[in-house]
Amino acid sequence: MTGQERRQEIARQIRCAEGPVAARQLAARFGVSRQVIVQDVALIRAWGYDILSTNRGYILNAPKRADRVYKVQHTDEQLEEELCAIVDMGGCVENVMIHHRVYGQMEARLHIDSRRRVTEFLRDIRSGKSSPLKNITSNYHYHRVTADSEGVLDLIGQELESRGFLVK
Fold first, then answer.
1. 82 close to 160: Cβ distance less than 8 angstroms
2. How far is CA 11 from CA 36, 54, 153, in A?
C-alpha cells in the first residue's frame, strides 16, 4: 500500500467512524509508527478535511450525512428526471453502480447535488464522450445517495417509487 492509499483509507476510517479513531489503532492497522499517522493526518487536513485531535483520537468535524443505496431502472430519456427528482428533494447522487454478470461490480463517482450539476453531467453524456453505465445492464443500476437525514432519504425513495424508477 502506498502512502497515498494509506492516507485515503485513514480519511475514510475517520469519516465513517462512530467515535474517535486513535492514532495507535491506525498505526497498528497499517504497520507504521504513530508519528507516521500524525504526519498523514496533517496531509489529510491539507486536502480540506477538518479533522480534530481529541484525547481519545481523531474525529471529523463535519455534520454526519445519511446515505442509502437505491436500485433503479429507467430509460436514457428519463435520466434527467431521475437525477432532478433526487437533487430537488435534497439528495446528492454520490455514484452510479452496476453489477455486470461478467465484469462484476463497476462504479463511477458522480457527486451530483444540484440541477446545474445534472445539466453538466447530461451535457457530457449527450456530447458522445460516453454513454450511461446503466446501458450495459438493461437500464438496471444503483445510486448511493446522501442527504441531511434519513427522513429526506425516505422522501427521495417515495419520489423515485412514484415515478416508477425504484426497483424492489
1. yes
2. 14, 16, 25
At 52, the amino acid letter reads L
- The partner residues of 51 in beta bridges, in order of sequence, read 60
Which residue type, as a one-letter code, is found at position 103?
Answer: Y
Nearest to 50 by CA among 15, 24, 5: 15
Q: Which residues pair with 23 in a beta bridge?
A: none
- From its phi and psi, is residue 73 left (phi > 0), alpha (psi between -120 and 50) or beta? beta
What phi and psi values does residue 2 have, to the nearest 5 degrees? -80, 165
Neighbours of 14 (CB within 10 A): 20
For the chain, the C-alpha Rg in angstroms (whole number) is 19
* C-alpha cell read off for 86: 433526487
Cite the DSSP H helix spans in the chain: 3-16, 23-30, 34-46, 79-88, 115-126, 150-162
Q: Which three cell numbers stand for residue 23?
A: 492514532
Amino acid at 134: K
pTM passes above 0.85: no
Mean pLDDT for back-to-back runs of 10 residues, the chain (168 residues): 91 86 95 96 89 93 84 96 96 94 91 95 89 88 92 95 95
